[in-house]
Model the fold of this input.
Amino acid sequence: MKKITLLLFTLTALGLVSSASAAATKNLNIYCWSEYIPQPIIDQFAKETGVKVTVENYASNEEMLSKLAAGGGEYDIIQPSEYVIEALVKEKVLHSIDHSKIPNLKNIEPQFLNMPFDPGNKFSVPFMAGTVGIVVNTDLVKDEIKGFSDVFKPANKGKIVVLDDAREIVSWALLSKGINVNQVTEKNLQKIKPLLEQWLPLVKVYDSDSPKTALLNGDVSLGVVWGGEGAILLNKNKKFRWVIPSEGTHLFIDSLAIPKTAKNVDNAEAFINFILRPEISKQISEEFPYLNPNLAARELMTKKQLENPASFPSEEEMKKMQIFKDIGTKGSDVEELITTLKAQ
Amino acid sequence: MWKSSSPRSKHNSMPGFLGSGSGVPRKGRHHRDPGLWAWIVLSPLILWLLLFVIAPTAMLTLVSFAERDSLGRILWNFSLQNYARAFDWVWLKILLDSLFYAFLTTVICLALGYPAAYFIARAPERWRGILLMLVMVPFWTSFLIRTYAWISILSKEGLLNSLLISAGIFKEPVSLLYSPFAIVLGLVYNFLPFMILPIYTSVEKLDNAMVEAAYDLGAGPLRAFSQVIIPLTRPGIAAGVMLVFVPSIAMFAITTLMGGGTNPTIGEVIFKQFTAGRNQPFGAALGTILLFVFILTFWLARSQRERED
Done:
C-alpha cells in the first residue's frame, strides 16, 4: 500500500516538474480588450503552435494601465490604444519588437505605420483602427445631421446616446471650437465648459460598452459611437445612417505590444505575426467590423464589408481625423469636468 | 452585521471574547482561560478578516493620502489634497443622491419584503421551503444577466411597452428605461431577497402565543402588529435594512446600465477615478469617505437599538 502511495507521489511530482518546464516555453498570456479577439482565433493559434494560451480581458486602456503599472500579472501581449502606447514608450516599459519575426507586417497599410506615437513601430504593431462618428435613425430624425452641432440641439433632448468616455466627449467640444483634441489645458477646458453645459443635459444614455443597444431598442434615435458599433447597426437595419462629424473626429489605432516583463517573447511575436495573416485578420473584421489596417485582409473581404462607411471612412474623411496623445494627469481633471456637468 | 442582530444572550456565551462587559473573566475561583482554544477555533475567521477586510481598508486609507504620476502609479508622498478636493459640493451632491436612492430602495424593499417574509414564514411548513426557494431561484443567475433582462423589458420597443400599447393603455411608447425610476427598480429587484430572508428568520421565530396574548388583552390587529409583532421581529428588520441600504449606496453596475449614466452615483464616480481618471489616490479618498458614511450608518442603527433596549 505504502509503495503505491509512494509511486503515485513520485509520478505526480514528475508530472508537476515536466509541466513546469513546459510552462517556460509553451505559454502565452494575453491581456486584451473584451470583445476584440474572437475565441476561435485564439483556439486556432493554440492548435497550430501547441502553445497554451491564457486570455484576460479589460474594458478600458486605463484598467490595463493600472494593472500593468501595479506590476500585476505577467503578460506577454497587451493591446493598448495609440495614446497609451505613447505613454508606455515614454516610460520605457515595452519590449522592442523584432521585425524579422513578423514578416506579415508588410500586410499593413503604410498609412498606419510609423505613427508619431511609435516611430518605426519599434514597440507596437497595429491591430485595428477606427473612428468615432454619428449614427442617425432616419425613421425618427428627419433633420439633416452633419456634425456635433446638429446632434446636440435642444430639439433632440432625450434622444441621444453618447460614449461614456470623458476624454471623447471633451474632444468633441474641442473640435467644435476648432481646438486640437490634444490641447487639453485648464484654459481650453474653461473655454468649452459652456458648450458642454448645453450638451450634456440633452443626453439620455452614456454607454461605451454597447451604445448600439439603446439605438436598436428605439430608446434613442441619435448616437455618437465607435465606428465598429456603427457598422453593426448599419448592417442590421437600413434606417441607420452613418455620419462623420463635419467638425472632425478622433481616429484611434489599437495595437499589439509586448511588455518588458513578458516571459514568452517568442510566442508573443509568433502571435502578432499570426494575427496579421490576411485570413485571420479578415475573420476578426467579420466579427468586429472596425477599420482593418491589413491591406491583404481587405482583399479577402466582401464588397459590402468594404463599403460600410462606419468601418472604412473615405480618404476625405480620414483627413479630418485627429489622433489622441497622452494627457497624463489631466485625465482626472477631464473626468471631474464631465462628472460635475452630469451631476447638475 | 448578522452578529448584531442576533439575540444578546449569544454575545455573552463566549466570555471575554466579544467583549460585552459583563462576561469579562475575573481573577478568582471560576477563572477559566478560554483564550487559546477560542483563538484556534476563530483563527480562520480572524485571518479572513485580516486579509480581506482590515488589510484592504488599511491600504485604501493609505493610498488616499498619496499622490500619483502620469501613468497612474502611486507616489508615496503624504498629501491631504485628495481630501481637500473630495469635500467639494459636486462629490457631496453625488454622495447625497446615492444616499437618497439607497434610502428609497430600502423603504420600498421593506414595504414589499416585510409582508412577503411574513406570509412565507406563516405559511404551512411544507410550503415554506418552496416559497423561500422561489425567492432565491432568480439569484442563481448573474445579476448582470437579470439587469439586461430588465433592459429588454423596459426599453421603448420592449415587452412592457408593447404589452401596454396592445392593451390600449398607452397610445405611444413611454420611455421607462434610463431614468431614476429604472435605477430604483433595478436596485429594489436586486436587493429584495436581502430584506426578505432576515425578516423571514425573525418572523419564523416569533412566538405565536405572544400575538394571541395581545388579542386576548384586547388589542386590534393594527395594535398587535405595531406593538407586538414589529418589536419582536425588529432584529430581522434591522438586519434587512442594513443589508439593503449599505450595498445600494455604492452599487454602480445597475445604476449605470439602467440609469443610462445620466445621474452619476458615488460608486460609479469612484470606479471612474480608479480607471479612466488614472487617479487611485483620489478614488481612495472618496472610498474612505464612503466607508465613514457606512460606519456612521451602522453606529446610528446600533445606538438607536440600544436606546430602545
